[in-house]
Amino acid sequence: MGGEDQPNSTTSLLSRPYYSGSSSTPPPEKTTTTVPFISLLLTTCLALSVTVAIAILLFSSSLHHSQVNLQISEAIAKFSRPLPKLKHPVVILISSDGFRFGYQFKTDTPNIDNLIKNGTEAEEGLIPVFPSATFPNHYSIVTGLHPAYHGIINNRFFDPKLNETFTRPTGSNVSKWWFGEPLWETVVNHGFNASTYFWPGSMASKGKWTCQEYFCKQFNESVPFEERVDGVLNYFDMPSSEIPVLMTLYFQDPDAQGHEVGPDDPDITEAVGRIDSMIGRLIQGLKKRGIFEDVHIVLVGDHGMVGTCDKKLIFLDDLAPWIKISSSWVEADKAQLGIRPPANYSLVDVVANMTKGLKKVNNGKHLKVYLKEKLPKRLHYAASDRISPIIGLVDEGFTVTQSRPGGEKYCGGAHGYDNNYFSMRSIFIGHGPRFAKGKKVASFKNVEIYNIVTSILDIKGAPNNGTRGFPNKILVPSR
């Protein structure tokens, strides 16, 4: 409406004033004094018009440049930035054993929160492989293989071909137990250095990886956490061409506390706070060297934890009226049952008789036994002679054991259950040039981590069970 009014006003001001007198008679004085006034108004309006036009032009230009700058910023954010102080991308892979998803909400964790805020997080946790135990999952993380394929099918197991039993720690440095190609072997095969500060499997020599003392620390749980962090930081003081491009770091907390007191005890809160302080120590050490934003930090856990108590026990001896299960048959118990009967027993009959008995005994409904070939396919837990021929899946929070214990009643925590249970999930947090800031991704299985790390390092990985193209969902493209 205002755009139409202005032309009418201007036309009125510029019109010749009406005068009815003789043409020879001078116009009245009023007409003479109106002309300068009209000129002044005209000049003022023109000036205002020019000013408004310039303002609109400048605003439009500013808006255009802002939009262009925003588009440029968004484009830059889609790609990782260059590394000014490192010759090659570096990944620090950190495991906090038994760090159940949700522990980070139990207490203030400013350093972990910093990584999450400025990095990428699996929003509802990292899914372990089955069984959700320490050794199988740590080795799945670094090989991208399910336990049936990397060989470490549990924390303790029997190999019928070798006629030997794998135990910790004696089997940790013997390569015959460890299949697949772990990340440290992949890295050295490409001509780079790798270092491991306590990681299951790292002490076994494989290929070009020989576990040299300087780059490969023998597990010793008494080594202070601070010393472990400082040991990793010291590698960055090497000549740039010698800095390991993969560094692993392991903490046994809060798993140790979880087994003793369960997941909801104040001891867990204290342990989580301690882990956070170690992350802070690492961050400060990297900042001191001016490389915090250049290094990729991947913080994970191997499994979660659930509370257990003596009222949730299942006893194999209770099955004696249907079938006597000798303790010599039992290769795994607690959160998962593994049974290897003598060769003269029918496996089908053993499963059938156990199933009958479990319907009758106390808490028996919370244990379901299978021939391993009949397990749910999603568990990927059949394709190895090391896996017991009969596997029992135990309901969350229940435990299976041979006989009733004497003495004190016990409550604590356990893991090893079906990896579908949310309580078995851990954490995945990535920070660094290839991780977008503040990004949340859906939960995924830890066998995907191998390909994520090799993608960051820009090296070709070994065949594995990870999903082709999965790193593209997690990482921003490299330049």
Automatic annotation (TrEMBL):
<keyword id="KW-0472">Membrane</keyword>
<dbReference type="InterPro" id="IPR002591">
    <property type="entry name" value="Phosphodiest/P_Trfase"/>
</dbReference>
<dbReference type="InterPro" id="IPR017850">
    <property type="entry name" value="Alkaline_phosphatase_core_sf"/>
</dbReference>
<keyword id="KW-0812">Transmembrane</keyword>
<dbReference type="GO" id="GO:0016787">
    <property type="term" value="F:hydrolase activity"/>
</dbReference>
<feature type="compositionally biased region" description="Low complexity">
    <location>
        <begin position="12"/>
        <end position="30"/>
    </location>
</feature>
<protein>
    <submittedName>
        <fullName>Uncharacterized protein</fullName>
    </submittedName>
</protein>
<feature type="transmembrane region" description="Helical">
    <location>
        <begin position="37"/>
        <end position="59"/>
    </location>
</feature>
<feature type="region of interest" description="Disordered">
    <location>
        <begin position="1"/>
        <end position="30"/>
    </location>
</feature>
<feature type="compositionally biased region" description="Polar residues">
    <location>
        <begin position="1"/>
        <end position="11"/>
    </location>
</feature>
<keyword id="KW-1133">Transmembrane helix</keyword>
<dbReference type="Pfam" id="PF01663">
    <property type="entry name" value="Phosphodiest"/>
</dbReference>
